[in-house]
Structure formats: C-alpha cells, structure tokens
Amino acid sequence: MSIRAERVPGGWVRIVEPRSIAIGGMVLSLVGFFVVLPPLTLRTWVWPVTLGFFGVAAGIWAVSRGVRRVGWGAVVLGILGMTLGLLALESSVGKLDVVVVWSALLASMLRYATPLTFAAIGGMFSERSGVVNIALEGMMLSGAFFGILAAQKSDSWVFGLLAAMAAGATLALIHAFFSINLRADQIVIGTAINFLALGVTGYFFVDVYGDQGTPEGIPRIPDVNLPLDKIPTGLGEFLDDVFGSLNLMIWLSFVLLVVSYVVMFKTPIGLRIRAVGEHPRAADTVGISVYGVRYASVIVSGILAAAGGAYLSIGFLGSFNENMTAGRGFIALAALIFGAWRPFGAFSAALLFGFSSALAQRLPEYSGSAATLFQALPYVLTLIAVAGVIGRSIPPAAIGRPYIKQ
Amino acid sequence: MEAAPALELRGITKQFPGVLANDHVDFDIVPGEVHALLGENGAGKSTLMNIVYGLYKADEGEILLKGKPVTFTSSKDAIRSGIGMVHQHFMLIPVMTVAENIVLAEEPVHEGVLLDYDAAARRVQELADSFNFHIDPNARIEDIGVGQQQRVEILKALYRKADILILDEPTAVLTPQEAAELAGILRTLKQEGMAIVFISHKLNEVLDIADRVTVLRRGKRIDTLPTAGATRESLARLMVGREVLLRVEKTPSKPAEPLLKVDDVSVLDDRGLPAVQNVSFEVRAGEIVGIAGVDGNGQTELIDAVTGLRKLDSGRVAVGDEDVSGGGARQVIDAGLGHIPEDRHRRGLVLDFTLAENLALHDYREPPDSRFGWLFPRRLIARARKLLEQFDVRGGTPLTRASALSGGNQQKVVVAREIERDPRVLLAAQPTRGLDVGAIEFVHRRLIEERDQGRAILLVSLELDEILSLSDRILVMYEGRIVGEYGPDVTDEQLGIAMTGGAEHQAA
Amino acid sequence: MSESPASATPPPVTPPSNGGPPSVAARMAFYQRAGGIVTPIMTALLAFLVGGVVVAASGHNPLTTYREIFNGTGLNWFFQVGSHDIGLPFSDARVWFPWNVNDAQSEAAFNLQQTLLVATPLVFTGLAVAFAFRCGMFNIGGQGQYIVGAMVSVWVGSSWVGMNHGLHIVLAVVLAAFAGALWAGIAGFLKATVGAHEVITTIMLNWIAYWIGNYAFGQGGPLQNDFNESVPVSNDIAEGAKLPVFWGDALLQGLHVGFFVAIAALVVYWLTLNRTTLGYEVRAVGFNPEAARYGGISVRRSYFLAMAIAGGFAAIGGALDILGWQFRLGVIDIQSSQIGFIGIAVALLGRNTAVGVGLSALLFGALLNGTSTRNLDPEVFQPELAGNLTLMIQALVLLFVGADVLILIFWQRLRRLRPGRSAAREAPS
Lengths: 406, 508, 429
Fold this sequence. Notes:
The complex is a heterotrimer. Chain A has helices at about 10-15, 20-35, 45-65, 70-90, 95-100, 100-130, 135-155, 155-180, 185-210, 235-245, 250-265, 270-280, 280-285, 290-315, 330-340, 345-360, 370-375, 375-385; strands spanning about 225, 245. By secondary structure, chain A is mainly α.
C-alpha cells in the first residue's frame, strides 16, 4: 500500500507516522556507518552496530504498521550500515584513510556520474514524451565508439563529439521509426538496438583497429582548470581537489541540468512534450503532432546518451573497448526512474550511483579480491533502487503505449 | 431561425474495415440552435462528428462551413475554423492544471521562449468569468469534479474562439443536477449565437435540450425533425426501427432469506483514503438490489471488496452463511458469488484465450477439468459447447478466440460463465455498457430470470434507466456511504438529489 | 464503447477500447496466428539479408562469407542422404536410417556435433526467455541465470568425487536448476511484490552474477582451483560427473546426452504451458493480468513462478554445458559467454513456442558454430568480425520481430484483403 500523504494531517502527527520513523531509521544507519570513517574515525563498533540496529528496528516497526516499502528499505539499510561499519573497522586506520579520501572520492563521483547524467536526461526527454528508451545503453556505446573513431581520424575532439551525437541520433531514429510508426513493442526494439550497437561497434572496432585496439594520443575533450586553490584555508584546497580540474563535459552536464529543467517545465515545448506523454490523444485533438514530438524527443535522447558515451571514451579513458559501457545505460535509466523523471532527481540518483562506482574503484587498496566483488555494488544499488525502496515514482501516464493516429 | 447553416454535411460516407460507419449522411446546423444527434451505440454519431473535427477523413461527401466547402486534415484545421469538440472521454491531462490544459498548444509566451503561467491563468479566469463559470485555473484536473472537468473542456473550445460546439454524450458522467446545469450553460451559449451539436442516446435529454434532432441508425440518417412534438416512443422507434421495450417486463419479486450480507464495511482506495465508509446492506434471494451513484463515489471499491479483490479495512462480508471477509477472490467465488465485471475486455475475458478456456476461468483447478494440476482440454471444450448453445452465443466455436466475438456475444460468454456455477449471489457491474439494444434486452431479461430462480442479484450501474428498470430496491451511494434506500417507483429527481448528497449542487 | 463486428479473423494488436497496451504474450500470440512458420523464416531471411549488406559495406563478399559459415555448421551433413543403419539403444538390433551416423569422424559429422552442442544450451536459454514471455515478462537475465547454473554445477561436480555417477550428475543439475530458479526468482519476487520492472532487475542480476563469478573463480577467490594459483579457473569436475557422449569422440568434444535433455525440455515446456493448471495461469496472466486476477488467479504467484521456472531452464543449460564438455569454469568463460543473450533472439524468432525455440536454437547454434574461430577461414572473413556479425543478425531479428505491423502488412497483401475478413478495428460509434 503506498502512502502518498496528500491529505494526511501535517505537523507533529507526521513525525510519529510510521513512514517518518522508517526514514529516520535509515538516517541513523547511515550515520552509524559514516562515523567510523575519516574524518571522525570513531574506533568503536558501538556506533555502527547500535545505530544500524535502531535503523533495522525502525524499519520493522514501520513494516508492521503497513508502511512496507520504506520500512523494508530501512531494514536493509540498517543491516548494510552495520556490516559496512564493522568491515571498515577491521581495516587499519591507514588503509581507511587511503580509501576514503573524500575530495578524491567526490571528484571521482562526478566523473562516474556524468555519463549517467547525460543518458538519464536524454532518457527523460524520451520517456516524458511516452516512449520507453531501453536503448540508452546502445546509444551510449555507439557514441563512445564513433566519438573516438571520428576524433582519431579527424584529429579533433570537437568532431569526435559531433560524430558521436550523430551516431546516437541515427540509432534513435531507428528506435523511433520502429516504436512510433511501426508501433512495435518498445522494449523489444530497445533491446534490439542495444544488440545492434554492440554488434556494429564491435564489428567496426575489430575491422578498423584490429588486435591493437585504439592507438595512443587520440585528442581528448579538455579539462577545465580552475584556480580554486587560490581560495584561502583548507576549503580552497578541498574545492580545488574536487572541482579544480574537471572535464568540460562534467561542467556541460551541469549546464544541461539547468537547461533541461527550464525546457521541460518552463517552456511551451516542455508542456507539449509532457502532454504527449500523459495523454497523447488530448494533445492530438488540440493540434499537437504526437509523432513529431515523440520523434524529436527520442532523437534528443539519442544525442544526449551518445554524448555521455563520448565522454567515456574521449573524455575520461582515452580509449575504447568492446562493450565499454558495461550496463551504464541501464543504470542511467534506473537513475531516471529513481529521480521521478525530473532532471535534478535523476542527477542526484546519478551521483549516488557514481559514488558507488567511485568507491568500488578505490577498494582494491583495501582488499584485492574483495574489490572484484565491490564492482557489483553499483548494480546492487540499482537493484535496490528499482525495487522502489524510497517510494514509487509515477511515470508519464501514456508511456510505452504506441499511439494510433486515426 | 432562418440563418444560413453554420455547418452543413452532405453525403458523408466513412468506411472502416468491415463496417460502414457513415452511409451518405446529411446534416446541418444553424447558429443559435441546439441540434441533437441521436442513435444507439454503433450508429455512427461519434464517427460523423470526428470527421467534422478533423480526426477522421470522410471517404465521400463534403463539409461546408458557412456555405464554403472545407477539408480538414487534422483537428488543428477544425479548431482554426471555429469548431470545438467536447469528447465523451475528456481530453484532459489529469496531472496538469486547468490553465495548462486550456492553453495547451496556444500558450502565452514570455520573452519568446518561456511559458507565461501567470498570463495563462489570467486569461483563463477572464474567460471563465465572462461565461459565469466558477473554476480555479491552478487546480489540477485530477482534483476537480467531473462536472467541473467538463466545463474546462468547454472553456478549451471557447478559448480557441469556437462558434460551433460539438458535445459527445456529455451527460454520461453527470448527475441529473449537473446535467440540468449543463443545459443552462448550453442555453446561454445558444443565445450568444453558438451552434451546438449534441450527441446522445438518451431520449429525455434530447427532448429537453435540443431544438432539432437527427436520428442515425446503422450509419444511415433516418430522419431529422424538430423536438417539439416528438415523444420518447417515437424517437425510440426511429432509433431502433421497431417497437422497443423501454422497461423490462417483470413480475414483482418475492424475496426470501438474505444471501449477501455486507456489514459495516469500510474500504480504502489506492491512495489510502477512505472510499467506502461503514456501508451495510443485504441482498435477499429472489430480489435485485440496484446501487446507483455517480462514478467515483466508492462503487468500484465496494465491488472490489465484496468480490475479494480488495482488502476490507473493517467490517464483514458474508455470502450465505460463509464469512468471506478478506479471503481473496478465490474464496469468494467458491462461496457462491458470481461477478459480471464492468469492463469485459479488461476484466471479464482473456481475449486471446479461446472460448473454452475463458469459460473455464473459475473451474480449471477442479476435476473434471483438471486433476493434480494436469489439465484436460477436451473436458473444457465439451463444457463450452454446451454453454455456448445454452446461452445462444454466436460468432464462434469453443476453439474460437474471444476477441473474434462481438461485444454482445462476449458479454454472453461472461454471463454464461458466471451463471453456470450456480452462484447464490450474482454481482453485475455495468453489465450493458457498450452493447446494442438487442444485447441489452438479453442481459436484462436474463437478470430477471435469474432473480426469479431465487438468486440474489446486486446490480451496480451508472445508467439510472437500467437501475430503475430492473431493481426491486435501490440504494444510492454518495461519497462512500449509502445515503438512501428507495423502491422502484422513485423518480429521477429524487435519485439525483440523493446522488449528490441531498444538497443542491453548487451553481455553475 | 461500441462493438466490433463479428469477424472470422482476430483483430490486430491495436488494443481495444480499454486503452491497455497489448501484452507481449498477446502480440506473440498474434504472430502465431498471422503466419505460422512462414513469418519466422521470413524474419530470419530478412535479418540475414541486412547482415549481408553490412558485410558488403565493409568490403567483404557476403556470398562467400555466408557459404563459408554454412560449411562450418555441419548442416551439410543432412544433405548426405544414403542408405545406412543405426543401432537401437539397449539392444543389438540395427535398423535402416537415411543418414550416416556411424562415421562420427567425418568433417560434416563433426561440425554437426559441434552445432548441436551449441544448440543445446541455446534451447535452454531460449526457453528461459520464452517461458517468461508467456507470462508477460521480458527475461533478459538468461545470461546471469546460465552462469549461476554453471557455477553451482561446477562446484557440485568437482566436490564429492567418489559419488555414484548417475547421482552425481543428477545432483549437480538439480542444484544448478534450483540456484537458477532462485536467482531469477529475485526478479520475479520484486516484480510480484513491488512491481519492479523485470528488464532492469534481470540486467542488474546479470552483472551481479558476472562479478560474483569473477570474484569466485578469480585469483584468491573461494572457488578457484586448488592447483594453480595464477590461473583464474575452477577445479575440474570429477570424471564421474561428466555426461556420457553418444555421438562422436568423448575426447574430441562429442555430442553428449544433454542434447536429449534439451529435446525433453522442449516437450516439458509445451506440456507445462498447455496441459497443466500452472500453464493455464501463466498464459492467462501473460495475456491479461487483470482478467486473470478477476478470475481468482494469483498474478503475483504466477510472476514469481514463471521467472523461477525460466531461471531453472537457463541454469540447466549452464549445468549441461559444464558437465557435458567444458568440465571447468574460468573467469574468461564468464566474461566471454553470450549464450544467455542469444537466447533472447532464439525465443523471439521462435515465437515463444516449443517447436519454434527448438528450430531457432538450431539456427543460431549453426550460426555460432559456423562463425567460430575453428571453422571460419580468416582469409575469407575474420572470426572476430563474424562474432559481431552474429550479434547484428540477432539484433535485426529482434527488430523485425518487434515490428509485427510489417509482418501484418505483408501478410495482408499476400492474402489479398477482403473487407470483413481483414483484421478489423473496433469502429467507434
């Protein structure tokens, strides 16, 4: 049973509501975990265990009152907090410091989150207009490959980025044609596009680059260097570590956030896109071209997802490997759902997933083989997120249904 | 009314695969007139007006606007030519506000790019005030009532400067009071010179509101006549082509012991809010109890609770002597309750299953249809053959897919399936929605027969005529409660008042 | 809403007035009616055609490429019809048989063995997708479920070395099936309880299984072999756990009895769906969950069971591969395996029917074998390229399968549309 408290009494009554208790429990568990880490580094098992325990308790209480989703979420988080807190305790303080250097982690989080942000916002346009886009993964991958191919051949990252976006748009066009005009099942078509991208990029990757892979020295999207260390005291150093030399694409992702929010919620175009996604027939009867709006939205999603992929290859790594997106497109989709199809919500979710990836990258310093297991963390997190732990978000009403023009 | 026709249709023909929806239909309307388009389901009324509105393209014929021929390629053209349409199912976006819905596609802009929400709200308010509508431009559609929503639809047309307004079955979702208010609105608009086309299958309304009426039957125009001097019977005869029984003949009921007991039941809706509050009633063997009410007053949740598809928040439901509260659909079915659900496509039938499989939906788990989980298709087919004959289902054999049947025959399959189990109680929800007159007659007659066999029948319907025609007792639901119990001789007005809480509805 | 006229042919996949999207199961059902076996063949041909265009576009000759591939499949063995004999099992009698099964070493025979060897797990991963589809769910998790089955079977197979052979094999397969059912069951459970979309959950489970496998069999991992620390591979399974080979040389990767298990699985699939009450429920939920619910069927239970059974199928496929010819599982195997994903194309091309999945698995098995490194002459076409070509063909199959309207148009043109006989739309009043 979902609790969307629109007409529930406010104020004090809300605080002792089971749902709020459960959320409180989640907060406690998180606190219990974090106090063990630097800078607090409280070296006792008391905190993670007790606070985590309260988290579990709060969750169970909430479940018994009928608030199942948030309640179970608190339980899970409590257990997680306890375990992770204890694990963190096992290591020596030195290793812990190495692993959790906040500024580096935050910078890393931003880097991992950016392709997700691009893809998620692209997905937002498509889904808000009513077309499910499972193919974000394939569009991202093709952006990564064709971006680096074009950048290498033309010796220009600008051209690479443009080529990537064109590749994404092409795949999006295929998706749009089959899903909109031919009214195919959008998920099957999306899956097909993913396989197609995998096959095409792999094929041409081997054909062009053979065994050696992509060569060195391909022009990369530049970093933006900000003289933040000029700001006095430790704050300046911290800010510089995090924001001082981020890639251009990361800054563009922030711009994209704002622009997409304005377009979607403050302009007539956004209103029409949303109308088409909620009630296409109503939009049709006032003269909006449902097919046109959907086509445009899907193509935009292709362009943005591909840009995210291009960031991966020519902004971050500087090379390409087969299937290098490794499921990121799906994580972006989960971020979108988690963020209730809104740009800032999706961005927060992307940051969360980015953080888990960043953490996973740092952990080899902690334990060699466990690091492999931690690579699964972003996927586990996505699984939990999609299971709707923090309330179910409502998609656009007409999503996934082909529109039939009379 | 000697003005030139605002709109004229000549020889409009429209063919769909397998069906001639409009067959050389003529129609005209002058400014300041209300012209009704009357016909039963499937007669071609909506199709005709959808062609006028640009949603369909006629195969033959022409449309003349103020004497000039026009062709519309989309509804945008129609809108620009001053035609507005209020559809039967509102073309409103629930999560958006009144203002957003009204200005959609003609939004006021600010700095050339940004949507000017304030200007939108202002313009909508001005427009509403000029026609004396009371609406809140910033309210979300899903939060306002149906009568209000309809007014928003009308405003949409007025915002786009319509001078011809088409209303498709506008009172289908309104209470008698709201319908009266609508009639008032239409009269005002009429005086302003608007030409109003009014699609309906309700004889009373047509006689009440319209100046002229055109009757369609099976795609053909039968007659156009002024409503002054016409009677329900004469119109019904034109509509159907034969004498129509407007009320089912039935003998008075002889109710015996109660078979369905609903005791102080409360049910929550999907949002966790109370939808049914402390409802108690009984249905006795050999009687039909009808529950009347405007859609959205808890009937759906009540039905779900009685049939075991929704948890009871409190209270008890008993079928015969068995308490089935909170037992789940299976238990209720086994206790002897049959359910004819309100949407046969979505809930009644698995359209891709064969008729045999559909008819087995309640029985497949038990012998002789299956044993220890193993299914015997031949038994299913044999049973189906018997039932199809018994209930005169046409259009298929036991191996035909349910989707191939017509609506009336599909409903017969559902009815057959439910009745075959010899239920003690039969719950019929909107049993004749979307059916033609012949099928409606069948269902009504069948329900009376089952009543006479000693079953307890609970009828939940939005069609007052149906309730009045069939029920031995009538209960009215309003905001989740039973607010009145009446005998079959109650009047429309009395029911209407009860359906809106007994108070006069707020004036438009 | 008004009625549709009584027509002999079913209406199209456009949803009726209730506004719900047609379920995947309903669309697939429509296929089967619309074209029987012709449409899958047409779809496959179309996919190969477009694939050929890609090959040509990259400068290679599609005809020779395809011919080379075909030669490697072993399907030419079927063309060598003659007068031979075959021994009946469990007796000494021999009966006439048109094909030469006795010469297991000829090149065609060997290739055919390999093709069938690859087709066997494809049947299982195909059924994994198909069964879930019949219940209205898109199971993309076949790969993860397959891996889980492989992992469990390699662990069971390499433990308890002295166990009775038959028992050992059965135990490994049963435990693997259970594990796969559980793995897929997570997705089914989430869908049943909170409505989580199975596409995303199964994909996530794929990756989680992938990383668990990498961890378990990697260097220092708990299931890594006891002999060589630098090699990220499991222990070999015991001799007694290996499946007997019935055609070909056991030392040269002959065809094992798992092939018959695959055929049995197809039969079980058909029987379950069409002759059991569970199958009735699964199909009802797949076509119309609302109506199923109103009829008293527990939709949630069906979702969970369908996913679990699907996972079980895929996992058995994994187990049979390990016990039949792989005998060990390494990190490289986990990283390069695609069997689960190909199962999606297999199921869709086969229209989720038993016969369809069987034939489709054969087709893809042939394709995979024909494009493998061993068979394809790099002069004609590089095997790595060919692998990707296979991927593209799969994608094309999915694209064309998804666009059923194309098929509908084509089919209607072929049958020369008559009004009243055509797929009628519900005409509004």
